[in-house]
Design a protein that fits this description.
about 325 residues, Tachylectin-2, Chain A, 5-stranded antiparallel beta sheet, globular, binds beta-L-arabinofuranose
Length: about 325
């Protein structure tokens, strides 16, 4: 064999190897197998965590799983971190968890029972000593049971403000409320005017509320459209206070007919060291039309220089390996 031919073969093999290795170094989408939705993502110590809804018929939604990763590529499943055996009042439809690490404990807020007025259910809170649980019922009853301001008590998000106060933002059926949590998350603290709930519903809001504080601005995000359909999506607003007013700016996440439909109900992770923002969300493969066939995916989220959010490009590749 001529030296030139040998050199070409070696170079080709090395290139193919490099390409293969590069391929391995992206998460791919979905990031873990199975039908899951409404992911709440968090970083605890040097580990990424995702807490999704188990996406199945309501009567089969009697538990929640969690997933963890050290590198965004390999994800470990933590099965049944909480279930209806641990939460006696929850019978079905355990939905959309929201995780909070406070002190030495982890609090997992969730919705249960697809509650309607006069029924038992709504938003509950469970507690554990580590992020993988097992979680126990924190108060033995729903934290928010009633329909207030037309908001179904589901899809909560817990936001820590810069003054250290914790707020619970929540709501389905097109209405969003904000209430202040007490210090040990066993109840709500009325505002100075004597009310406990303030409605903050922005135009287009359906469910799946989320908030971040960035550069002293409050970014409110939410899902629009119907979760079983292709046009489910995420929009946002920016305000100077967690109470708004929230004027809708535009969509940040939606279907891409070349990739997937029904992209919505998201959460964010911020890698502070690298200043990288990740959006974790669910979407439906192009091959599927069944409402519950939803998968958890990850992509990058970017801000413009003026603080607005660029529309997310949803991908098949996901994100690159990143150890914390
Ligand atoms: O997964 C159950 C429900 O679907 C959630 O609570 C909604 O936000 C929608 O994603």
């Amino acid at each position: 064999m001529q030296f030139k031919t040998f050199f070409t073969i070696v170079a080709t093999v090395l290139t193919l190897n490099a390409v293969a290795q590069d391929k391995q170094k992206t998460s791919g989408n979905p990031i873990f197998p199975g039908w899951y939705a409404d992911p709440d993502a968090a970083i605890f110590d040097k580990t990424y965590w995702v807490y999704p809804t188990y996406s199945a018929p309501y009567k089969q939604q009697v538990h929640l799983d969690a997933f963890s990763s050290k590198d965004l590529i390999h994800w470990d499943k933590h099965p049944s971190i909480v279930d209806t055996a641990a939460i006696k009042w929850a019978k079905r439809a355990m939905w959309a968890p929201a995780i909070v690490h406070k002190g030495k404990q982890y609090f997992l807020f969730f919705g249960a029972n697809d509650v309607h007025q006069g029924e038992i259910g709504g938003i509950g809170v469970a507690v554990a000593d580590n992020p993988a649980g097992p979680y126990k019922d924190h108060i033995g009853k729903p934290l928010i049971n009633d329909i207030v301001n037309g908001a179904q008590p589901i899809d909560q998000f817990v936001f820590k403000d810069k003054d250290g106060k914790y707020y619970i933002l929540y709501g389905g059926w097109g209405h969003a409320n904000i209430a202040q949590l007490n210090k040990d998350f066993t109840g709500l603290v009325p505002y100075a005017d004597g009310t406990t709930f303030k409605e903050i519903t922005p135009k287009g809001f359906v469910e799946g509320i989320y908030m971040i504080l960035k550069d002293n601005k409050y970014y409110l995000m939410w899902s629009e459209g119907g979760w079983t359909g292709p046009d489910y999506s995420v929009a946002y607003a920016i305000a100077d206070s967690p109470f708004g007013p929230f004027k809708r700016i535009g969509k940040i996440l939606q279907q891409d007919m070349a990739i997937a439909t029904g992209a919505g109900h998201h959460s964010l992770m911020h890698d502070k060291k690298r200043d990288i923002w990740y959006i974790v969300y669910h979407r439906r493969p192009l091959t599927e039309t069944e409402g519950n066939h939803r998968e958890v995916c990850i992509d990058r989220l970017y801000f413009n220089a003026d603080g607005t959010i660029k529309p997310v490009k949803i991908t098949k590749e996901g994100v690159t390996e990143a150890r914390l």
